[in-house]
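Design job #97: recover the sequence.
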């Protein structure tokens, strides 16, 4: 059967949910066919929306004896009763809908964020995990923050909600002072955002225990994709009391969580004892002067 899905209108599909129409969303052979099958599949897409959690349903798709469908993760949560009619659920699969699901080509879920990709049902899931248009997680490290978004919205979020220091320019000179440097156990975080080359960079300064050794670590993350992060290099220099340490590195993308970067030691790592040498004086106070620079490799 070569009839593309466009023969079936959305209305016809949503009118009778229990009776699956004999549509064949054929494997498209040209781009124009892809387009028509996608536009007409929005009704099918609705059918595949779990009525409980509204996520797309993927096989195995379940149904109650009265034909109400629900996704497999919701099935686990509803204690064997249909959320729609309260009937006992049992273990009935909705094979017809599963077949429809498998035959569909669907746009990436980040279409509204700019992705124009269209994928077969399963390929879509894979793609979405890596889609370059997927939102970024908030790069702030000090708390579990669940905010996601594009770079401009995250920059505004860091500024307004986390009260992060914002700086323009590609060089910096920072002082980290701590009155009781022996309390590294309660890991502390500091974040500064730099705006240069029209991009945003996160400078992290963290204190934590590396095994049993208290350390300080400074590293840079790029607010964007790894591919673009690699175009930049940065250096960090900590000095004081006649001593100096220099780190040169490549900023990591904020796609990599700050913990992942930290645990890979991809940055300037200063043991507390060394840090106290830099601080000079009584060793009762941590005073680190970190200077840095970001530049673009050509
Ligand atoms: Zn569900
Ligand atoms: Zn039901
Ligand atoms: Zn995508
Ligand atoms: Zn946040």
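Job complete. Output follows.
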């Amino acid at each position: 059967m070569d009839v593309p899905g466009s023969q079936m209108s959305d209305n016809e599909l949503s009118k009778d949910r229990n009776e699956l129409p004999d549509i064949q969303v054929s494997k498209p052979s040209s781009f124009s066919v892809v387009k028509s099958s996608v536009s007409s599949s929005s009704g099918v897409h609705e059918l595949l929306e779990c009525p409980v959690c509204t996520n797309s349903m993927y096989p195995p798709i379940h149904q109650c004896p009265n034909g109400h469908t629900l996704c497999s993760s919701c099935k686990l949560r509803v204690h064997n009763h249909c959320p729609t009619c309260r009937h006992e659920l049992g273990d009935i699969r909705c094979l017809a809908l599963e077949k429809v699901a498998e035959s569909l080509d669907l746009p990436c879920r980040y279409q509204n964020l700019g992705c124009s990709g269209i994928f077969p049902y399963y390929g879509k899931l894979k793609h979405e995990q890596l889609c370059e248009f997927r939102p970024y997680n908030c790069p702030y490290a000090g708390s579990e923050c669940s905010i996601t978004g594009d770079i401009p919205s995250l920059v505004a979020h860091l500024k307004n909600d986390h009260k992060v220091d914002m700086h323009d320019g590609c060089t910096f000179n920072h002082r980290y002072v701590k009155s009781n440097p022996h309390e590294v156990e309660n890991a502390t975080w500091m974040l500064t955002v730099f705006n240069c080359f029209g991009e945003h960079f996160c400078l992290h300064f963290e204190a934590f225990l590396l095994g049993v050794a208290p350390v300080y670590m400074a590293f840079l993350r790029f607010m964007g994709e790894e591919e673009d992060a690699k175009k930049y290099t940065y250096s960090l220099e900590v000095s004081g009391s006649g001593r100096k340490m220099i780190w040169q590195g490549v900023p990591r993308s904020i796609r990599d969580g700050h913990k992942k970067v930290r645990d890979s030691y991809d940055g300037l790592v200063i043991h507390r004892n060394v840090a106290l040498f830099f601080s000079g004086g009584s060793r009762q106070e941590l005073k680190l002067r970190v200077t840095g620079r970001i530049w673009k490799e050509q």
